[in-house]
Amino acid sequence: MVFEHITDLDLKETLDCGQCFRWREQKDGSFTGVVRGKVASARVEGDRLILDGANEDDRAMWRDYFDLDLDYSAIKRELSAIHPVLSDAAAYAPGIRILRQEPFEALISFIISQNNNIKRITGIVQRLCESFGEQISDGRYAFPTAERLAALTPDDLSPIRAGFRHRYIIDAAQKVADGTIDLEAIRQLPYNEAREALTQITGVGIKVADCVLLYGLHRLDGFPMDVWMKRAMAALFPDTEISAFGEYAGIAQQYIFHYARMHPELFL
Fold it and tell me: Is the dihedral of CA 54, 58, 60, 64 positive or negative?
């Protein structure tokens, strides 16, 4: 499957920035991953996004996943006009896009992310899928459904080695499975109401809720703030409110996060 005339997409910047955990970089620079139970190997050649192994029937799903219909060039220009440091950050990683992930997968992934690093999160998510997801092909598994996880106990999750997060995962799965949490309905709520709805889940605080809203429900006005982002904002934007970043604050957040992570000397 090939998408032509693609701009503003760097797979490494997008898939390795901590917004998703099911892609693996290969020796040739391509990335192999599982999205909504579909396996593909992705690479960019010039202005072409190539998805080897993807079924043509799933073209709309992949186009949506990589957010190919949003004009990131125009958004970068808009954000760059807000603040000179944001202009530098956007120019430093111009190929970052916000993926349109499956909401339940994003919810569970960011529950797992608490007090964790990307490598360990990736390992836990992989073990979760291998233990409880449906096998797609040799060595490839779909993300487990809410109904599958809701039937488990925290002790059943011991093989994934997520520690205190086990009971949070079960609580989230049960609330989604029984309809207490309707992720698609939450997508449509005013931002603060959407955040409040997600924090009904045991173990989901403001930061995790913001991550789910941005990465799982594509609320581009979301702006997750972890310890690193708080330091970055204090050092780089000491007099700037998040509201100044406007409707694309979540994209600004990704530019700032990546720029700050790659420039530790800014915090000396």
Answer: negative
Yes or no: say if 212 and 198 are a contact pair by the CB < 8 Å rule: yes
Distance set, CA 81 to CA 17, 77, 88, 232, 239 (Å): 24, 6, 11, 19, 16
For tokens 């233990």, name the residue.
131
Residue matched to tokens 């709309």: 60
For the record, the structure tokens of 78 come out as 């808009």
Q: Which residues are catalytic?
A: 207
Identify whether the C-beta of residue 172 lies closer than 8 Å to the C-beta of residue 108.
Answer: yes
Tens digit of pLDDT per residue, the chain (268 long)? 999 999 999 999 999 888 999 999 999 999 999 999 999 999 999 999 999 999 999 999 999 999 999 999 999 999 999 999 999 999 998 899 999 999 999 999 999 999 889 999 999 999 999 999 999 988 899 999 999 999 999 999 999 999 999 999 999 999 999 999 999 999 999 999 999 999 999 999 999 999 999 999 999 999 999 888 999 999 999 989 999 999 999 999 999 998 988 888 877 6
Spell out a b/e string for 152-182, using b for 16 or more CB atoms within 10 Å of the CB, else e: beeeebeebebeebbbbbbbbbbbbbeeebe
Q: Which amino acid is at 193?
A: E
Q: Are 235 and 267 in contact (CB under 8 A)?
A: yes
Distance of CA 168 to CAs 4, 74, 155, 179, Å? 42, 39, 12, 17
